[in-house]
Amino acid sequence: MKKKHYGILSLALASCLTTHAGNKRQYTDKPNVIFIYADDLGYGDLECYGAKNVQTPNVNRLASEGIRFTNAHATAATSTPSRYSLLTGEYAWRKPGTDVAAGNAGMIIRPEQYTMADMFKSSGYTTGAFGKWHLGLGDKTAQQDWNAPLSASLSDLGFDYSYIMAATADRVPCVFIENGQVANYDPSAPIEVSYIKNFPGEPTGKDNPELLYNLKPSHGHDMSIVNGISRIGYMKGGGKALWKDENIADSITAHAINFIKQHKDEPFFMYFATNDVHVPRFPHDRFRGKNKMGLRGDAIAQFDWSVGQLLETLDKMGLTQNTLIILSSDNGPVVDDGYDDQAEELLNGHEPTGGLRGGKYSAFEGGTRIPAIVHWPQAIQKPEVSDVLISQIDWLASLASLVDARIPKGSAPDSYNRLGNLLGQDKTDRPWVIEQASNHTLSVRTKEWKLIEGNDGPEMITWGPKIETGNSQTPLLYDMRQAGEKEDLATQYPEKVFELQRILRNVRNKTIQMK
Q1: Is residue 514 assigned to a domain?
Q2: Residues 182, 173: Cα–Cα separation, whole Å
Q3: Is the pLDDT of residue 11 over 50?
Q4: Which residue of 112, 176, 252, 490 has the fewest C-beta atoms within 10 A of its own C-beta?
């Protein structure tokens, strides 16, 4: 972890960390911290970011009372590497095996690694994780016994309590994992999982489309069927433990609320990673059919409801003033990502990327520029919109500084203390951010410029989504003061290409330090 000192900011934080006089519930000088991490939520998918055709009043509340960032970046354009980087402070491309994980992947973050949860736990926090995990479970891939406590789980990574999905809703196993074992386990239906071959007699979306009574695939996603929806991977058993997609948000949120209530009198850290708006989109009946964009719009509304439930709980418990909430997304949006939910046909003028080029998987800005909102009434008393350049890679080091945590040498190697940016006290841009596309193409982005390194990949995603990749055999250079990444300026500004290539090379080789 690299530390940056802010002088006057330190004094301000000391004041902010004093218990708020109106908070009669929680007796601590440390703020609670909640990460609300949406899935595939685009820069333009929220009302407070200019979204059309959808209302997000609860997220709007956070933005109207906090800081809304317009130049915040995930480290990658896909889920697993973004989450890895957020929780470890290390770029995922430094570690093999951090691509989009199968549902039976072994733990990608290893127990010996220091995590965000370890950091908070060492500072006296109770820690909890809820919702999508997608970073592997058990010691080795495809060797988990899903019918017993897993050999390695989130308790080995600093989380005191966890109620999670092993991967994503479109991947088996379709069960919740609570504290390292299947929740509501049904001994009459032992669980088997494979990503190689099907189990004898088990129907699939490919061979039994008549059983797909909830959603049908548009491409891929045609293997085992759970809840009338076919998935990626093969699964047998589960019984009463199998989830119903329409209840996922309710279940995750209910467990998170219980965690808040149980720990209202002590500082807590919560990693609340929703399934919305990832496919398969099949929200609860309360939301379905209410949005003109169909299931994707309904899923955004359901995400906003989950945010509202957490806020309502904090309000009732008297915890709002002293709770730091950071709301963001793991990567950019995708419209058709494998299910025939008419998301593309029903956009009706809505732009999930907010006009940015590309999307999920892409090296263009639509892949990694994400919404980010910071809300902490005790420290942020004047709402603002900030265009300061920030990256999720720095959130571990920044929050370590906030709670005065000591990070072991060598941990969080790419994370810098940018706490002043998050709290609106420092308007200095991060000198650069590094972005990773799904094919491992890296980009380096400064406030004014962006370089996408050359590679031999296709210009469009080849397996279904209509998304430009940003691939080019030669490096691409864009002036980010001009919207849309429309004009490649590499041949006009070779000295800028060399400058950004040098930054990228030095970051790769760990031979550069941020000033």
Answers
A1: no
A2: 10
A3: no
A4: 112
